[in-house]
């Protein structure tokens, strides 16, 4: 069964990283709720088949016993032998079991369940995409709009006051290098000073 289409799809899932093999990896995949179907080889042990059925029942996915041996299943996924595996992609799982149902009619019911589930998931994905596309142009338009100032904004006033006319024309008294006025030069009101009324201040 080297050219078996079902095994070919499982090999494709293995190369795509969508297939877990072995009891430990299958259990982890089911515990993470990522498994879409669990597959068991025809000559797998009874305990292995029970564990696989238990893992699949916990996440409510089908557990399918393949008409292939452990060696055939292992050769398809590049291993020496494989007793149990699980597919994490619904499209690959539905395709693999669909090809198996085409050769073995007893798998037709499981294939129909996986195809129906695949159609539901794809329809949900299709509904989400237009929303994202509508939201993206709106976000781009809002980002492209320049920030406008409100209509009631007033122009900024110049805090500098205008200089009075004639303010700079006032004469300033000359000062020496040390900042003191030279001797003999007083203010313009020096001549208008009134004499002191204190009698002690008068000279005899």
Structure description:
This protein has 204 residues and is of the alpha+beta class. It has a domain at 5-131: 60s Ribosomal Protein L30, Chain: A, CATH 3.30.1330.30. The chain is 45% helix and 7% strand. The protein has helices at 5-15, 23-31, 46-59, 70-76, 90-103, 108-144, and strands spanning 19-21, 37-40, 63-65, 84-87. The protein has a four-stranded mixed beta sheet with strand order 1-4-2-3, sandwiched between helices. Helix 1 packs antiparallel against helix 5 (90-103) and helix 5 (90-103) packs antiparallel against helix 6 (108-144). The model has no long low-confidence stretch (mean pLDDT 79).
Number of strands: 4
Q: Give the amount of beta strand, in percent.
A: 5-15%
**N-to-C SSE string, H for helix and E for strand:** HEHEHEHEHH
Side by side, the strands of the main sheet go 1-4-2-3
Kindly name the structural category: alpha+beta
């Amino acid at each position: 069964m080297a050219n078996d289409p079902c095994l070919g799809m499982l090999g494709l899932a293995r190369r795509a990283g969508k297939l877990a093999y072995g009891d430990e990896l299958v259990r982890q995949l089911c515990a993470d709720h990522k498994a879409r179907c669990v597959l068991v080889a025809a000559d797998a042990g009874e305990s292995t088949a029970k564990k696989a059925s238990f893992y699949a029942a916990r996440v409510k996915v089908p557990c399918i016993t393949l008409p292939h041996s452990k060696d055939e299943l292992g050769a398809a996924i590049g291993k020496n032998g494989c007793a149990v595996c699980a597919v994490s992609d619904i499209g690959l799982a539905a395709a693999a079991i669909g090809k198996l149902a085409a050769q073995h009619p007893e798998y037709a019911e499981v294939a129909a369940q996986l195809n129906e589930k695949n159609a539901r998931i794809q329809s949900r994905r299709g509904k989400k995409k237009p929303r994202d596309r509508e939201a993206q142009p709106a976000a781009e338009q809002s980002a492209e709009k320049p920030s406008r100032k409100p209509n009631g904004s007033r122009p900024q006033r110049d805090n500098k006051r205008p200089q009075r006319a004639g303010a700079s024309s006032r004469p300033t008294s000359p000062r020496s290098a040390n900042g003191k006025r030279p001797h003999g030069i007083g203010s313009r009101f020096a001549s208008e000073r009134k004499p002191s009324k204190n009698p002690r201040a008068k000279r005899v």
